[in-house]
Amino acid sequence: MSVQTHRLKNGLTIVTESMPGLESSTIGVWVQAGARNESEAQNGIAHFLEHMAFKGTKTRNALEIAEVIEDVGGFINAYTSREMTAYYTRVLGADVPLALEVLADILMNSIFDPREIEIERGVILSEIGQSLDTPDDVIFDWLQGVSYPDQPMGRSILGPADNVKGFSRDDLSGFVATHYGAENLIISAAGMVDHESLVKQAEALFGDLPKSRAKPAALARFVGGEKREIKALEQAHFTLAFEAPGIRDANVYTAQIYSMLLGGGMTSRLFQEVRERRGLCYTIYASITPGLDNGMLSLYAGTSEDKIDELAQVTIAEMKRAVDDISEAELARAQVQMKAGMLMGLESPSARAERMARAIAIWDEVPPLSQAVAKIEAVNVAGLREYAASVAQSGAMAMALYGPVASAPSLDDLHNSLRG
Questions:
Q1: What tens digit of pLDDT does each residue of 262-307 get?
Q2: CA 263/CA 282 separation, integer angstroms
Q3: How many CB atoms lie within 10 A of CB 24?
Q4: Is 246 left (phi over 0), alpha (psi -120 to 50) or beta?
Q5: What is the pTM of this model?
Q6: Over the stretch 185-199, which tens digit does the pLDDT of each residue have?
Q7: Distance between CA atoms of 129 and 119, rounded to whole angstroms?
Q8: Which listed residue (17, 50, 243, 354) is catalytic?
Q9: CA 172, 176, 181: angle at the middle one, nearest 5?
């Protein structure tokens, strides 16, 4: 397997990886703009725009966009994150040119028919309503909001319903004009794909796209705070968050291994102590979400009303204990888990294409996997304990609670206990 890159004169980047033995390919266009690139009044528009890309172009209506891909056995989809928007297809190798032509069509020729805007507005409002009925979704939006208050990084990807109700055709076109310039686009393909042919076709389809690159998003600042909503639910939903390194930070691998041994699997400290030994919950885990300039360590558990106080206290106790007694065995297990998870996760062309697009957005190149493996292996116990201590002594902490959570301790109580 070999990664090849090419940059067009207008700044658009094409990256491919041929995967011998595969008959299919994933090809997509990643736009370096997401929810954190929106103003407060625009919050939700990147996601709305992602929906509208499939609702009709100058040459195809919504059904024809779906048919042209599904008629060759492929599928087409998209997603919006806080930092990127992706439009991608999975097709047989012979149909890669068709897939790229369709992607170019929906990205550059969408007409934003007012009737389709109204239809999709209703769909998105239903999506927002569904998310509000899903405590797991709600609480992580709240956690993001109290971690990064009054800034784009703290806003939801779907946006508030009032914004969605007001977006116009001009709003959508304006966001495209600002953020969909050639320098903000990455075409990434993996599987049965020919690099030179793809570059030639991309030049023909995207070569005249304006070069403009949008202004970078404002730096994210982890602030912290608490949001608690008492509601008669079956489960009490409990989350904590701490600032973590961004993806470019040298400490990001240490932070990821720390989160893994803390709450990354069945052998993790939180799973063993909170669930297995004490039976305080069914689900508990920790994870790191590293952004371009800032990251977040988050912990989640769902429990019953009468157990939430003990669960919160035991979680803090485990974080304190990690400062002094992380072992070589735990480190070795977490390193193997992280390497295996990364490598096994890249056995599909979709995962490979995603990885390459993100790498170009982050580093402007695709580092070899061996480099990531070496950085994972370089993490040591001393560094892990030092990182655990930095989390325990963190100056900022966030907490979101939802459900029967009246008896849960306050953020200040937990923060003082962790730092004490």
A1: 999 999 999 999 999 999 999 999 999 999 999 999 999 999 999 9
A2: 13
A3: 21
A4: beta
A5: 0.95
A6: 999 999 999 999 999
A7: 16
A8: 50
A9: 175
